[in-house]
Amino acid sequence: MKNKRENFLISGMFLIVLGAVFSLGLDIMMGSIMGLSGIICFLLGMSISSELEMSPEAIAGWQPSMEQLPDAGRFMFRVDVTLDDPIKSSILCGPCGHIELVDGGKPSEYDCVKCGRRLWDAPEEE
Ligand SMILES: [Zn+2]
User: Fold this and answer.
1) Radius of gyration over alpha carbons of the chain, in Å?
2) Does 115 fall in a domain?
3) How far, in Å, is the centroid of ligand 1 from the Cα of 99?
4) 74 CA distance to ligand 1 centroid (A)?
5) What is the pTM of this model?
6) Which range marks the domain in which residue 69 is found?
7) 126 falls within a domain
């Protein structure tokens, strides 16, 4: 899949360059056709990448996107714990949007390393 994507991107680039050369000097019709197909190839190559299934490495390295959670009276946070070894938890701090990766499962209590807010205390219902 990766090679296929690269082929699309390379041939896309190639056709765009060829198209530009053609339309500058030789044949504007030829050039625009080649340029257009180059752009289509390029877009195909780009879209393939987004349709790729997540590789194991990508899943292992996955973490939630940086986002700030709404303030609902108490500090919001989100904890995602990986299912496979090595177990890691990613903690999204709602107030500042910082994401911290810690080894192991969800800690019993946690202070955001960036803004210093205590996100939760032990004991936690779970
Ligand atoms: Zn924070």
Assistant:
1) 24
2) yes
3) 8
4) 13
5) 0.42
6) 57-120
7) no
